[in-house]
Specification:
Layout (H helix, E strand, L loop, with lengths): L4 E4 L4 H22 L5 H8 L3 H29 L1 H20 L4 H28 L9 H6 L1 H22 L8 H8 L1 H14 L4 H6 L3 H12 L2 E4 L16 H5 L6 H22 L2 H8 L4 H30 L1 H22 L5 H19 L1 H11 L3 H20 L2
Helix pairs in contact: 1-4, 1-5, 1-7, 1-9, 3-4, 3-5, 3-19, 4-5, 4-8, 4-9, 5-19, 7-8, 7-15, 13-17, 13-18, 13-19, 14-15, 15-16, 15-17, 16-17, 16-18, 17-18, 18-19
Length: 409
């Protein structure tokens, strides 16, 4: 239906605001996803958890993410981006406060599932907004903006460790066991801010409206929200075939001859990248504290530097390179360097002395190339492999594949 609209592109302040709000949602996804990475040891001690229940606490957010992504991917294509984008922040507020106040592990698991549903709902709609409010070429093009989810993710994780550091230095030692509650509960604050700002500045995606046949609505939003002088084309151009309404059959379309190889590639990148992320990036504090035998302050500082310096840095480099190098090449380079880093870590075993610094550097190298390559491309493949009418379903289908691989780790 895009040919039925004619417009001259004006200032992109409106589109830029949408991108910022979409990245704000991804920031919340990452913060809530990683907020327990440092505190899982304290939770295990506080609630007296056995290994199975500890794993269940960790995996519960993935269970929710599977539910949220499958449902959210379908709903975002069926009913639009805006409605879901507003609703999913409520999950973050409720879940963050619920986790922080949980009296036992079962309530914590319950609210972690709710939190996962929020993450699963938000990612398809956030990525759809990033793709649909971007140029095809030039600065700020679609590839770059979709890849920008990666530095946003590591930036949020880094902010989490900043909060952990501030609390660690501020709280009395007797309160350290409850530090995780403050970190998780803080997630409700930015979620409320994002929810209020979204309500004030966000509107439906014109591409989605055009695909639904609501060309008048698409024109109104382009004019009022994005300062674009859009007009409807001649009536003879409006007799275009509309894509079928989103339904359960849409998941089958992902494996039709036209999209089958794209779907398989998106699943492969997503699954293999997620294995690496959860084993190394998510587990960084645990690796440093247990395998490298470091205290809490060194663990916090190392995790903070690795995520802010190497995670964000690698993600920004990926954004800069993707248009010239291509998503596939970045993913291949990233996987290759990650493999080399893991081999070096395996040879180091349980490092001591100066070798600890070298081992931490290998962790940082792994995360740098994760953020630049496969980590960024796992969402790029599932977002850009499909047209507007299938984008939410495509993202929603591939995300649970990676979530299941993480929960089985």
């Amino acid at each position: 239906m895009a040919n039925a609209l004619a417009y001259q592109q004006g200032p992109q302040k409106g589109a830029f605001a949408v991108v910022v709000l979409a990245l704000g949602g991804i920031f919340m996804d990452a913060y809530d996803f990683s907020s327990l990475a440092f505190g899982i040891t304290q939770i295990k001690t506080q609630f007296g958890l056995d290994p199975f229940t500890t794993g269940l606490v960790n995996a519960s957010i993935f269970v929710g993410a599977v539910i949220g992504a499958l449902g959210g991917g379908y709903l975002v294509d069926r009913f639009g981006r805006y409605r879901l984008f507003m609703a999913d922040m409520v999950f973050f507020v409720v879940a963050a406060l619920g986790c922080a106040l949980s009296p036992n592990e079962w309530w914590l698991i319950f609210f972690r599932v709710i939190m996962g549903i929020g993450v699963g709902l938000d990612l398809p709609v956030a990525m759809a907004f990033l793709a649909e409010f971007s140029r095809l070429r030039g600065k700020g093009n679609r590839n770059q903006r979709v890849n920008s989810w990666s530095p946003a993710w590591y930036g949020a994780t880094g902010v989490g460790y900043v909060i952990v550091l501030i609390l660690f230095l501020s709280l009395p030692a007797a309160q350290y066991d409850h530090l995780w509650r403050f970190v998780v509960g803080f997630g409700a604050v930015p979620a409320l801010v994002v929810l209020v700002v979204r309500r004030s500045y966000l509107a439906e995606s014109p591409q989605w409206l055009a695909n639904q046949g609501d060309l008048t609505g698409a024109v109104d939003i382009l004019r009022s929200k994005h300062n674009i002088d859009a007009v409807l084309a001649e009536k003879s151009e409006l007799d275009l075939a509309r894509p079928p309404k989103t339904s359960a059959k849409s998941f089958g379309v992902l494996f039709s001859p036209r999209y089958r190889m794209r779907t398989i590639a998106a699943i492969c990148v997503s699954v293999f990248s997620t294995f690496g992320y959860n084993a190394v990036a998510y587990g960084t504090p645990l690796i440093i504290s247990t395998m490298f035998k470091q205290g809490p302050l060194v663990t916090i500082l190392s995790s903070l530097v690795i995520n802010f310096g190497f995670g964000v840095g690698g993600g920004l480099l990926g954004v800069a390179l993707v248009s010239r190098t291509g998503a596939r090449n970045l993913a291949i380079i990233g996987f290759a360097v990650q493999t080399a880093s893991l081999l070096v870590l395996a040879l180091l075993g349980l490092p001591q002395g100066v070798l600890v610094v070298f081992a931490v550097l290998m962790l940082a190298t792994f995360i740098f190339f994760q953020a630049m390559g496969p980590g960024a491309q796992l969402m790029a493949y599932s977002t850009l492999s499909y047209p507007t009418s299938l984008r939410g379903v495509g993202i929603g289908f591939t995300r649970p594949c990676s979530a299941r691989s993480a929960s089985c780790r």
